[in-house]
């Protein structure tokens, strides 16, 4: 055999393999030391002993508590590549929410452009909370809730508080019809029972004309108002012919008359949102729905106590509310038309304080339609009431546009010029410039004229349906810091809910749901309701803005939607069994800081129809308690991942309330 030369020796396969192994070993040795010295002591690949051979990692076949690792590494001085956690609300010095971006100098800036849509960013902004890892392992046990007594079948906690009403010094101004909620510790702690024989509600649009007697088994209105074409009972159903006290020949004919009197009202284009005061069974609002008009029908829980319950059973937007001593829970310039047909309200009492509340809620240039006996009867006392009404509306700078038959229609001015040109000392005066006309939660009525914004916001709206997607000018008036960032958030919220609802339709077949009466329990700009409209759902949504959040109600109404202010640590002013669907996004992770989760959940059970459904979209750390509370109320529950996948910090809890209690 020929002897190997030195060059040939180094070319042999064995030597090449040995050389490669040595080089790879040296490379991994230095990589391991570099990684370990960068602050992550647990990531050790090579032993620190002075031996040359490769060692097995000390971490081999071990499990670690990732939470502990994170906490340990937070003590190191490392480059911060993660977003800082949002401060708790209690640590904020500014009562207003701040939206925008931080520039390179650390200052808040509103100069930015919207890039690609990131659902996770909107999700975090929406919920404004993170997973509290320390609570994830805590198991919650909730005792099963019992049924309430049968006497509480129609119970509205804040309106049926007999003890509090008895303690009132006076009921002269209707104080007994206002909110008087139970004291802490004495709230609802049981499940409100349903009537015997309760049935799945008749679907819309049939429900406009008939409902099951067994669902609202009360005949008082039939006895009192049957002759006025309000309501009748036929076998196992209530029938609604569409009449009212002042329009016994039907609401359609009545609406045509109003349109002819003032063509500029233009139902369904110029007029989109209406308030009907003293609504009866809400036939006025029910027939406006076919004209693309949303009407909030309100009435107190008085001798005709179930009229609002009938309205909601029919599938018509309605709330229990009274003109008394406090502002109604709607913002300024909310309604294009406010209607009162024999609503039994003395508008001129106390220097016209009740009509001044109408003026606050009426949009600049909007119309007040009054159908009542003083308009057309010539008895002395009624003629005096008419003269008082003329005098008051003149001092409010309202213009009597038309008086025909039993209807009179006034128009509110578009600006403050008339108010400012009145003689000195004329009452009522203008409200103080510092008065916030959108501050409505437990705020007393004020005998002053609400100023119209000088910039024209609230009056300069485009027609329906274009206004649904156009950014309202009043977005600037919302108490947030930067106009540009608010506008971008408005657009982002609309896009966010459009994609979410589109996903629900595809994945969970929402089009098969019988959605009619829907409540968004934590609305922001009305994006959820807008998405339902865009998807073609034949339903209406009540957008509830919690009192702890920025008051976005003016924006919601400017879009042509309905909304109301509410504190979810207190009961809501509606009858039991009135909503088909409740939607709560990020509600519980915020409100649990103020009240028990079970308090809100029991209220949800009270207002949810048997057979109704709940979607809760919230952070992981509240899901255990929500599930256990739902089970304790005999709801069927299912927990789902969001579209971001199983590692996202949010989940969707879907709950179904059975048609009957087990």
Automatic annotation (TrEMBL):
It is a single-pass type II membrane protein. Its EC number is 2.1.1.-. The chain crosses the membrane at residues 12-32. It comes from the Eukaryota. Its main location: Golgi. SUPFAM superfamilies: S-adenosyl-L-methionine-dependent methyltransferases. It is found in: Golgi apparatus membrane; Membrane. One of its GO terms (biological process) is methylation. Residues 75-100 are annotated as: Disordered. GO terms for molecular function: methyltransferase activity. Keywords: Glycoprotein, Golgi apparatus, Membrane, Methyltransferase, Signal-anchor, Transferase, Transmembrane, Transmembrane helix. One of its GO terms (cellular component) is Golgi membrane. Belongs to the methyltransferase superfamily. This is Methyltransferase. It comes from Manihot esculenta.
């Amino acid at each position: 055999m020929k002897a190997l030369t030195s060059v040939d020796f180094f070319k042999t396969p064995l030597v090449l393999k040995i050389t490669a192994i040595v080089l790879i070993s040296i490379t991994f040795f230095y990589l391991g030391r570099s990684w370990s010295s960068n602050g992550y002591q647990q990531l050790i690949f090579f032993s620190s002993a002075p031996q040359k051979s490769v060692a097995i990692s000390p971490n081999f076949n071990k499990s670690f508590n990732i939470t502990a690792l994170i906490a340990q590494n937070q003590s190191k001085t490392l480059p911060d590549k993660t977003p800082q956690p949002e401060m708790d609300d209690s640590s904020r010095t500014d009562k207003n929410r701040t939206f925008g971006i931080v520039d390179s100098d650390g200052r808040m800036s509103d100069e930015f452009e919207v890039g690609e849509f990131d659902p996770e960013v909107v999700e975090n902004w929406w919920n404004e909370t993170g997973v509290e890892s320390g609570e994830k392992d805590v198991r919650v046990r909730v005792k099963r809730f019992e049924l309430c007594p049968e006497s509480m079948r129609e119970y509205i906690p804040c309106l049926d508080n007999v003890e509090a009403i008895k303690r009132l010094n006076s009921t002269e101004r209707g104080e007994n019809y206002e909110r008087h909620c139970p004291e802490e510790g004495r709230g609802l702690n049981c499940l409100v029972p349903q009537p015997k024989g309760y049935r799945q509600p008749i679907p819309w649009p049939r429900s406009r004309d008939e409902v099951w007697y067994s669902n609202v088994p009360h005949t008082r209105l039939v006895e009192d108002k049957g002759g006025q074409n309000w309501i009748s009972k036929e076998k196992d159903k209530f029938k609604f012919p569409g009449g009212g006290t002042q329009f016994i020949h039907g609401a359609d004919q009545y609406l045509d008359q109003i349109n002819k009197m003032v063509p500029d009202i233009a139902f369904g284009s110029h007029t989109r949102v209406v308030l009907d005061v003293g609504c009866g069974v809400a036939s006025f609002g029910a027939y406006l729905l076919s004209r693309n008009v949303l009407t909030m029908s309100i009435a107190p829980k008085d001798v005709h106590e179930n009229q609002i319950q009938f309205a909601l059973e029919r599938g018509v937007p309605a709330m229990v509310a009274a003109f008394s001593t406090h502002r109604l829970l709607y913002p300024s310039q909310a309604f294009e038309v406010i209607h009162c047909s024999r609503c039994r309200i003395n508008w001129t009492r106390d220097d016209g304080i009740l009509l001044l509340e109408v003026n606050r809620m009426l949009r600049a240039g909007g119309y007040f339609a009054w159908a009542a006996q003083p308009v057309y009867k010539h008895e002395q006392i009624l003629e005096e009431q008419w003269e008082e009404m003329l005098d008051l509306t003149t001092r409010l700078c309202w213009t009597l546009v038309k008086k025909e038959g039993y209807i009179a229609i006034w128009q509110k001015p578009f600006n403050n010029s008339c108010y400012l040109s009145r003689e000195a000392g004329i009452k009522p005066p203008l409200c103080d410039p510092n008065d916030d006309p959108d501050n409505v939660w437990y705020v007393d009525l004020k005998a002053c004229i609400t100023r119209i914004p000088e910039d024209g916001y609230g009056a300069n709206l485009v027609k329906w349906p274009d206004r649904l997607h156009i950014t309202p000018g009043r977005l600037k008036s919302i108490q947030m810091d930067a106009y540009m960032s608010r506008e971008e958030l408005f657009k982002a919220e609309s896009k966010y809910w459009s994609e979410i609802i589109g996903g629900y339709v595809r994945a969970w077949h929402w089009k098969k749901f019988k959605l009619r009466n829907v409540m968004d329990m934590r609305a922001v700009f009305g994006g959820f309701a807008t998405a339902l409209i865009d998807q073609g759902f034949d339903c209406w949504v009540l957008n509830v803005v919690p009192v702890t959040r920025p008051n976005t109600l003016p924006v919601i109404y400017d879009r042509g939607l309905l909304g109301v202010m509410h504190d979810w640590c207190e009961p809501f002013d509606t009858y039991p069994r009135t909503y088909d669907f409740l939607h709560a996004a990020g509600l519980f992770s915020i409100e649990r800081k103020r009240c028990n989760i079970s308090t809100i959940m029991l209220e949800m059970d009270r207002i949810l129809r048997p057979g109704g459904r709940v979607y809760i979209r919230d952070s992981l750390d509240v899901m255990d308690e929500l599930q256990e509370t739902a089970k304790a109320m005999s709801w069927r529950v299912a927990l789902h991942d969001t579209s971001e996948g199983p590692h996202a910090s949010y989940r969707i809890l879907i709950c179904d309330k059975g048609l009957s209690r087990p």
